[in-house]
Amino acid sequence: MQACRTEMALLGEQSLLEPIDIVLHAGAHKTATTHLQQLFYQYADKIQSRGTSFVGPRHLRRAGQSLKAALGAAPGQDRDAVLSQRLGDARGLLVSEENALGMIIAPDGQLAHKRLYPTAPHRLTTLAKGLKPHRLHLAVGLRNPADLLVSAYAQALMAGNYRSWEDFIGDVDPVAMEWSGILERLAQSGHFASIVVWRYEDYHAVFHDVVAHLLGPDHPIGPVNLNRKSHEGLSGAAVDACARWYADGHRGRLGTVAREDFPISDSTPRFSPWSDTVQDTVAQGYADDMARLETIPGITVLKPTR
Predict the structure, then answer these.
(1) CATH of the domain at 115
(2) What pTM was estimated for this model as a whole?
């Protein structure tokens, strides 16, 4: 009887689908993720006709599903039935969800962690294990940590979670933030078919390489306006206005209103709270971090060719 149960358990673990390729574009936050997602939605039918089914935040968050549940990798799910439904007549999946790495801002508008995505290695490795024997490919845009924090602060203000910059940043040190530690752990896990990263600062220059990696070289996405930003940050004047309005008792999405009233321009430059020394130190650390990523087996860094 025990032998029979063991055989049945093994049969139950076998995949009913032929192994497929699942590409997970896992953000990160504030790295033009929304720009890419909007393109994938726009071209979803053509992408599907070329053999790839796109799953984005609209599909995931509307249903209130975790990423694991959306891909059938949560306990008790019929994974292959879920994947088959996602695939339709396609042969592979492209999933884009920046929260796959974890949250950068907590529900109260404060930074979620003092380090970059400390739960990401466990979250993503668990997902990859739950999807086997299907192949999970990971793609991540990276960004200078000092700029990432400033952009996250603007996002918090626009979401209606006002607090001063000093309260928001607390004792978080951007100099100590690095990407290579996270990605090295993922690469060393052996659970990813490939890991590809690029710098947000290189986004315009590597855009076509990024899209080709996510969708394949025969992708249908046409000419794209790369100068149009989906989420512009805040000017220093806008941040000052939020502080005044909050002190006067106003609440709500102050950052959104301030962005309209005080857009970034030559006369109202972007909010920049870091000293030159901090900015220079973080920039050098970020460059060193990217150089280290290029030496880690299993990680490909997309770089401008000219």
Answers:
(1) 3.40.50
(2) 0.91
